[in-house]
Amino acid sequence: MESYYHLYHTSRLIVKYWDNTLSEEERVALEAWIAESDANRALFEELSKEEVLKEEMLQMGKYHPEQAWDRIQGEVMVKRMIPWGRIAAAMALLLLAIGARWWYTGTEVEKQQPVIAKATPIKGKPVLVMSNGEEMVLGAAKDTLLTNRDGTSIRQQGNKLAYSNTSGPQVYNTLKIPRGMDYSLTLSDGTQVWLNAESSLRFPVHFTEADRKVYLTGEAYFMVAADARKPFSVVAGQAEVAVLGTEFNIMAYENEPAMQTALVSGSVKVKTAHGETLLQPGWVGVTENGNTTAKQMDIAALTGWKRGLFVFRNADITTVLHQLERWYDVTAVYPKEKVGSQHFTGAIKKYDNIEQVLEMLNQTGGANFKLSGKQINVAF
Question: In the structure, what pLDDT confidence band is assigned to residue 81 with cuts at 50, 70 and 90?
Answer without folding.
Answer: very low
